[in-house]
Amino acid sequence: MVLSMDEIINAICLHMAQRKDVRPTEVQVELAWDEDTGYTAEVWVNGRSQYLVEANIIEAILLYAHTEYGLRVFREDVTLDLDEEITARIAN
After folding, report:
1. Which InterPro entries does the record match to this protein (predicted)?
2. I need a labelling partner for 77 at 20 to 30 A (CA). Which of 11, 36, 39, 58 fits?
């Protein structure tokens, strides 16, 4: 299974909304990849910025896969890929 960049952003929005006790529509996310830092996400909630590293992004994807698709997925099953956009590959 492959999650698109939009689905990864949705996963992060849902995860951060739950953690910050806000609505998902109040969360903004920008994904990035850098040679030095790898995959990151800058998240804005209530006007405050926070950076997430790859482990945080994968955590959000794990919860998203469980809540949206009913899948029990483990960290080692998720791989982030960069082609034309960032995607997440989930091993079955």
Report:
1. Uncharacterised_YxcD
2. 36
